[in-house]
Amino acid sequence: MKLIVKLLSYLPLSILQILGSGLGLLAYCLSQRDRQLLRHNLLNASKIHGFKFDPIAVAKSSGMMLTDSLWIWHHPQKALALTEIKDWDLVKKSIAQGRGLLMLTPHLGAFEMIPRILAEHFPATIIYKPAKQIWLNEIIEKGRAHPKMNFVPANIQGVRQIVRALQRGEAVGILPDQVPSVGEGVWSKFFGQYAYTAVLPAKIAQKNNVPTIVFAALRKPLGQGWEIRAHLIEQSFDLDPNMAAAQLNMALEKAILIKPNQYLWGYNRYKHPAGAPLPPENGH
Predict the structure, then answer these.
(1) Is residue 264 pLDDT above 70, yes or no?
(2) Is 98 contained in some domain?
(3) Are 146 and 119 in contact, with CB atoms under 8 Å apart?
């Protein structure tokens, strides 16, 4: 499998994106569970915000998210050359404050491109959950390797490294739309449905009033690369974790609505972690 992945990475970006599009569509057609999950999440959000309901486009984009990552890992310099950065002055002003930078990167477009872009300018520490498959985790870790990027596990040791990086005035990154473990989240509305939402981003930002930016790496037309957008969360996170989670989800929605078809709607964002309390609408 590793050999196949390596061979695929040598394909031109446009060809690899076409292949990814086909793989995403194939997964959509073959898996009834995944198809229903994608359609349910997408339909609900499209009704609330009035954008076009297009599950086929989303399925294709989900496949391209995988192949984009593969190409970025194996062609980092070419990927940088194909990336247009918007709002960079905002990023520079934030990091210049000396309190570090919290970068939030939802599963949107080519999100793997964002830490690599930032690492070209200053050190970045990224918290992540290792892949369950050992071979896949080896590919990811090798592809992400960069002298100014430090990937740390999503546990207490990783959080400590995040805190130390911020104390040094560096950037740290979190995937804010992953479902956290029990006790590490609260229920908060995300596109109109209750989602168990991480409280870690707000806690990190509150610790020293760390500037917090939501980044989006939006895919351009086939083979043309990506556009990085940045949105500063101007209002400090509320000390109430429920209010802070609502602020976080609102900021993520704003970023996703720029190109909603490039979001990973097939991810089970609304699952109920074992042992977590029931969401408010189902509780007693």
Answers:
(1) yes
(2) yes
(3) yes
Does residue 104 fall inside a structural domain?
Answer: yes
Distance of CA 27 to the CA centre of its chain: 21
Is 71 inside a domain boundary? no
CA nearest to 213, candidates 125, 93, 108: 93
Range list of β-strands (E), 18-140? 83-85, 101-104, 124-128
Extended beta strands in 63-144, E state = 83-85, 101-104, 124-128
Residue 274 CB coordination number (10 Å):
7
Predicted confidence (pLDDT) at residue 171 exceeds the cutoff of 80:
yes
What residues make up the domain containing 248? 84-262
pTM score, whole prediction: 0.92
| Tens digit of each residue's pLDDT (9 = 90 or more) over 182-220 | 999 999 999 999 999 999 999 999 988 999 999 999 999
Whole-angstrom Cα distance, residue 242 to residue 202? 10
Domains: count for the chain: 1
Residue with tokens 């194939």, as numbered in its chain: 26
Three-point CA angle 156, 160, 164, nearest 5°: 170
Give me the DSSP letters along 16-42: HHHHHHHHHHHHHHH-HHHHHHHHHHH
Amino acid type, 258: I
Question: CA-CA distance, 55 to 101, in Å (whole number)?
Answer: 35
